[in-house]
Design a protein that fits this description.
Blueprint (H helix, E strand, L loop, with lengths): L1 H6 L17 H8 L3 H28 L4 H13 L2 H5 L6 H21 L2 H17 L4 H19 L5 H27 L18 H10 L5 H4 L6 H11 L1 H19 L19 H5 L2 H8 L2 H22 L3 H4 L1
Helix pairs in contact: 3-4, 3-6, 6-7, 7-9, 8-9, 8-13, 10-13, 12-13, 12-15
């Protein structure tokens, strides 16, 4: 917003819609009356964070010692065949929080590899900020906190080692500060923050049915909108064979998300097309595919990936080509 105010990249005169564009005078008036800063935000905010997310995803994949070819292929799949691409054209907070979660996890990986507490401090700061952006980041923070304890004990060989407490504090104190900021921000909010959205999803359905729907239903199924993620039924087995503890860590991200949102009775839809609540899970469902690629980089397997990726590309570009606001 500050950039657009300073340089006037987009103004009220940049694009003027008419009824030749949309046969609805009210809609045309609404589009033309949108503040230029909001338009700039919609055009640049999502794409910038999506691009940063893809770059961070590549760096994380390299920490698992995937070859540059495999890491590049994974990043392309992440960028253009998953719902990250669709949501990158919105100002929804699922895109920036995905970047911050990947950024924080990158430093956590550096801690796992090098056992240096300073990386935990950076990871804690970034995850704390991610929590401010979107509160469901806590579903990543809690498993990582316990994994931090596990790794610290494993590396120290002594439960009472001062290094363990140093690692725990390095990771948790920055997040504690951000949680305090969160509480202060909430205390400044005036009025009812409750939702008036009618219950249209979940309701009295069994939890496991809702969890299944989050993955496979035509309306909000993550695997339907990102078919490349069907590879999890193979890649997670390869991941488990290579790195059992981190495979369990990734599963500890996935299951709480499905349980948490499987209990939801609301799904507002609108510009939140598809399974937007699970967007930050996508990189952790796709990353294990690198282990399968390292093991099965042959024409047959690449052909299967190309087919799944092509479907995801079609689904997502179909959403990008439609002015969703026009239908709302």
């Amino acid at each position: 917003i500050l950039i657009n105010n300073a340089f006037d990249f987009i103004t009220y005169d940049t694009v003027i819609f008419t009824e030749d564009d949309f046969p609805d005078a009210h809609y045309v008036f609404w589009r033309n009356s949108q503040p230029p800063t909001f338009t700039f935000l919609e055009l640049f905010y999502g794409p910038v964070f999506a691009a940063l997310s893809v770059g961070m995803f590549y760096l994380i994949s390299r920490t698992y010692l995937f070859s540059p070819k495999v890491s590049t292929l994974l990043s392309i799949l992440f960028a253009f065949t998953t719902t990250l691409w669709s949501y990158s054209q919105t100002s929804l907070n699922v895109v920036p929080v995905t970047f911050f979660i990947l950024f924080g996890f990158f430093f956590f990986r550096k801690f796992i590899i090098l056992s240096l507490s300073r990386y935990l401090v950076m990871s804690g700061v970034i995850f704390g900020f991610a929590f401010l952006v979107r509160n469901d980041a806590i579903l990543f923070i809690i498993p990582l906190f316990f994994y931090c304890i596990f790794i610290s004990i494993k590396n120290s060989n002594k439960i009472n080692s001062p290094k363990i407490m140093q690692n725990i504090l390095s990771f948790s104190l920055p997040m504690g500060i951000f949680y305090y900021i969160h509480i202060k921000i909430r205390s400044l909010v005036i009025g009812d923050m409750g939702s008036s959205i009618p219950p249209v999803f979940g309701g009295n359905n069994p939890l496991f049915l809702n969890m299944f729907g989050l993955l496979f239903s035509p309306g909000v199924g993550l695997l339907i909108f990102s078919p490349i993620l069907f590879t999890i039924f193979l890649s997670y087995f390869d991941f488990f064979k290579k790195n059992k503890t981190e495979c369990v860590l990734f599963l500890s991200f996935v299951v709480p998300f499905l349980v948490f949102y499987g209990q939801s009775s609301t799904w507002h839809g609108l510009n939140g097309w598809g399974p937007r609540y699970l967007t930050s899970l996508v990189p952790f469902l796709l990353l294990p595919l690198g282990f399968s690629l390292e093991k099965r980089l042959n024409k047959k397997f690449i052909f299967v990936l190309f087919g799944l990726g092509a479907l995801g590309f079609i689904f997502n570009i179909s959403n990008l080509m439609v002015d969703v606001s026009w239908f709302i």
